[in-house]
Amino acid sequence: MALLSRVHSRTAGMLCGAMYCVVSVTGCGAGWRRVYHASAGPADGQQQAQVWQRGEYTRLHAVEIRDSVISGVHFMSPTNCVSCRVLFPLAQVDSIRFGTPEQGFFRGVGLVFLAMLGLIAAICGVGGGCYYD
């Protein structure tokens, strides 16, 4: 009976550790970071921007900052869509955040995959191997 409770407590500990890993991975998003003093010119090609005004944001890509205006294309439209480009006067913008959602997605998926491999390795190591008859 003592052996059974010890195995259950180890399994519960490993499950708690795995859940901790999964929950901590959820913080590995797009890496959105606020820009306080945006420099003029185009943003990095992979980056998207959240342009915040009055508590709501518009998500853009193909972002350019010129003089007193930030412009970009809605992130669901093609980057080369000239008629889709929108302009925001910087004086009316509360804040700007840049991020790369695709990299954040793949980073999160990779960490979850590694956490699951670690969990499998730990469970197999506790039980003396993962062999089934």
Describe the structure.
This protein is of the alpha+beta class. It has a domain at 33-100. The chain has helices at 2-25, 101-126; strands at 33-35, 41-42, 48-53, 56-66, 69-74, 85-89, 95-99. Strands 1, 2, 3, 4, 5, 6 and 7 form a seven-stranded antiparallel beta sheet that branches. Strand 3 and strand 4 form a beta hairpin. Helix 1 (2-25) runs antiparallel to helix 2. The two termini are 23 Å apart.
Short description:
38% of the residues lie in helices and 29% in strands.
Descriptive labels:
133 residues, 2 helices, 7 strands, 29% strand, elongated, disordered N terminus
First-last Cα distance = 23 Å
Describe the global form: elongated
Largest beta-sheet characterization:
7 strands, antiparallel
Number of helices: 2
The helix-strand sequence is HEEEEEEEH
β-strand percent reads 25-35%
Instruction: Assign the structural class, choosing from mainly alpha, mainly beta, alpha/beta, alpha+beta, or little secondary structure.
Output: alpha+beta
Taking all Cα atoms into account, the compactness measure Rg is 23 Å
- The percent of residues in helical segments reads 25-40%
Total strand segments? 7
Uncertain stretches of 5 or more adjacent residues: 1-7
